[in-house]
Amino acid sequence: MQKIIVLTGAGISADSGLKTFRGADGLWEGHHIEEVATPEAFARNPRLVYEFYNLRRAQLLDPAIQPNAAHKALAEFEKSYPGSFHIITQNVDNLHERAGSENIIHMHGELQKIRCLQTGESFFWQDDLDETTPHPKGIHSSLRPDIVWFGEMPMHMAEIEELLSDCDVFLSIGTSGNVYPAAGFVNWTKGSCYKVEFNTEETPISEIFDRTIIGPAAKTVTEWCRDFLTTK
Ligand code: APR
């Protein structure tokens, strides 16, 4: 039974109404990434960074933001596929979970988690966060979004490396191929691994894949999952 790994990026959530990072204007919700998604930005202007992530976190509670057909197709695939199946996501939203996926690795953290700066422990959190937020355990320490910022080490890398080195099918969905290490994951798979990219356009790494399927993920991923299960 083939072992399948799916890497997802902001493009899979675009059809749910969440903005991707590198839009046509090069800005993320009106900000340069360095203004809001680096440890330096947090040190320089914590209020702006807290506020930025508060808005992103609040968006997840907006009833208009729902998992789309691509998230659902992957969740259904996982339920019906008897082999090994894992999603590695760069996304900090919770749409894979809400669609029903179970084997999910959040390599860039999660909007609905906050982290204690002193102990590193993280906590589920749906509300706003700022300097005045009481620590869930009463510790006298600051809290930050549990997000991997530029310049920081992605989470769960040992597990990711092990999964990639042993997978037979690698699907890369809605990611620009600009941000490492995720952009290099396709090269961490073994030579015999079948590699498919799903995007609305070619990316700088398209040629490494056996196939690039152009179109919105909500359509292309749904079709691919259906075809794979019916031909196996
Ligand atoms: N279906 C498929 N792909 C899409 C869709 C769609 N409906 N809409 C956009 N895309 C593609 C874009 O063409 C682009 O290649 O999704 C990709 C999104 O790229 P980015 O915005 O760069 O997002 P991502 O690759 O996830 O960014 C990686 O960078 O900012 C950091 O930590 C952040 O996790 C993020 C990482």
Structure description:
The chain has a 6-stranded parallel sheet, sandwiched between helices. The chain has 9 helices and 9 strands. The termini are close together. With 232 residues, the chain is of the alpha/beta class. A hairpin with a 5-residue loop joins strand 4 and strand 5. It binds adenosine-5-diphosphoribose (APR). The site of adenosine-5-diphosphoribose (APR) has 23 residues, from helix 1 and strand 8. The site of adenosine-5-diphosphoribose has 23 residues, from helix 1 and strand 8.
Strand content: 15-25%
Please tally the β strands and state the result: 9
Cofactors, ions and other ligands in the entry = adenosine-5-diphosphoribose
- Unreliable parts: none
For the largest beta-sheet, the strand count, sense and barrel status come to: 6 strands, parallel
Lateral arrangement of strands in the main beta sheet: 3-2-1-7-8-9
Task: Lay out the secondary structure.
Blueprint: E1 4-8, H1 10-14, H2 33-36, H3 39-44, H4 46-59, H5 69-80, E2 85-89, H6 95-99, E3 104-106, E4 109-116, E5 122-124, E6 143-147, H7 157-165, E7 169-173, H8 185-188, E8 194-199, E9 211-214, H9 217-231
Parallel strand pairs: 1-2, 1-7, 2-3, 7-8, 8-9
Antiparallel strand pairs: 4-5, 4-6
Helix pairs in contact: 5-9
The structure holds adenosine-5-diphosphoribose.
